[in-house]
């Protein structure tokens, strides 16, 4: 009886310890962007975002995005993106390059956006991290639906495949999202979105649950 009780207590403590090693964090993101539509299919945009983590109680950092797009034809675009992240006194420089393909069927738009991501990390007062970097292949695929003149919605799934020299590609985590966008004035939009970010291929994977709101202003000279 004593052996059984000891085994039961050990098993219970092991379960609690395992659960504590995997965490789920609720975050909130707030951002605003300006997009400039130029001639011959060119678009340039800038976005500023702030994030709160630890169940939306802690200011995580600020993020500045710069992006350029070129429309090749009715179905394809090429794009490049730079992001500067200022997180807890440290700087993260991220670069993206890729393409976006889409086609419409009535009010539905199917899209896929393969991209290569490279991120360079700089930590304050730590010269040993000057060469720290990560690279990913991102494969976003999704669907948009035009509800009416002012409302549309979207959903996508996006695995992040880690690129590591001498190793095969493997999925590090997913970013999956649902969003609802409203055009409240001509070329002015507000989007409410949800993102689910589960890690994979880890013994104790963490998960982020994110709710965000975004405001977008489009300028067409």
TrEMBL record:
Which interval of the chain is the signal sequence?
1-19
- Name the domain of life this protein comes from: Bacteria
Q: Which InterPro entries match?
A: DUF2490
Keywords of this protein's UniProt record, alphabetized?
A: Signal
Please name the Pfam families in this protein's record. DUF2490
Recorded protein name is DUF2490 domain-containing protein
